[in-house]
């Protein structure tokens, strides 16, 4: 509120910031889980290999 915003605006912004932080934390947790998911890693390698075969060069 030091910036001149109302209490309602400050609360709204705090809620928006909290949701963004929670989403970032959840994405971080999910990305760490995927980094150690052997099935997902194998699928990624397969897709990359297939894409490499499709290259024109």
How would you describe what is shown here?
With 57 residues, the chain is mostly helical. It has one domain. It has two helices and no strands. The protein has helices at residues 7-35, 38-53. It is elongated and about 60 Å long. 0% of the residues are buried.
Please outline the helices and strands.
Blueprint: H1 7-35, H2 38-53
Précis, in short:
With 57 residues, this protein is mostly helical. It is 79% helix and 0% strand.
Total helices: the number is 2
Helix-strand string: HH
| Proportion of residues in helical segments | over 70%
What's the Cα radius of gyration?
21 Å
**Main pleated sheet:** none
Oligomer: single chain
The count of β-strands is: 0
Uncertain regions spanning at least 5 consecutive residues: none
Sheet-strand content, in percent, reads under 5%
Counted up, domains total 1
Average predicted local confidence, pLDDT = 91
Which secondary-structure class do the elements indicate?
mainly alpha
The gross shape turns out to be elongated
Distance from N terminus to C terminus (CA atoms, Å) equals 60 Å
